[in-house]
UniProtKB/TrEMBL annotation:
InterPro entries: Puta_zinc/iron-chelating_dom. It comes from Zoogloea oryzae. Pfam families: CxxCxxCC (PF03692). This is YkgJ family cysteine cluster protein. PANTHER family: PUTATIVE-RELATED, YKGJ FAMILY CYSTEINE CLUSTER PROTEIN. It comes from the Bacteria.
Length: 135
């Protein structure tokens, strides 16, 4: 799935990705925020969509059911207790500001996001796409 309006970037084609370098995110259109985000229960607590008491006393399956119903989780892997965050119809992460293309929960972002691009489908590379002028 190519990011809309961004040159030769296709998040599904790793050969179109750019080697990460310092400052690359400064003018990026946040294409990484269009990929599925897998999170653990600790990430959901940090995001404040699950409270610590609930995380300790509620079964992950029940939490997944509630968050799916609320539109925050798109999938739950029962075997590994990994939640996949839901995305907007555009493919964007729910926590990405559509206008600024910046993360609205940056200080609380999940470990998957914190570790990108060191960890991911092509470690050390990004699905970089320059931001449109004026954004």
């Amino acid at each position: 799935m190519a990011a809309p309006g961004f040159f030769n970037v296709d998040v599904d084609r790793l050969d179109t990705w750019t080697r990460y370098r310092s400052g690359l995110c400064n003018d990026c259109a946040a294409n990484c925020c269009t990929m599925p985000v897998e999170v653990r229960l600790a990430d959901l607590v940090r995001l404040e969509v699950v409270d610590a008491f609930e995380a300790e006393h509620e079964a992950p399956k029940q939490i997944a059911r509630r968050l799916t119903k609320a539109g925050l989780v798109g999938h739950f892997n029962f075997r590994n207790s990994i939640f996949t965050l839901a995305r907007r119809a555009s493919g964007d992460c729910l926590f990405l500001d559509a206008t600024t293309r910046r993360c609205t929960v940056y200080e609380r972002r999940p470990d998957t996001c914190r570790k990108h691009p060191q960890v991911g489908p092509r470690p050390g590379y990004c699905a970089y796409g320059p931001r449109a002028k004026g954004v």
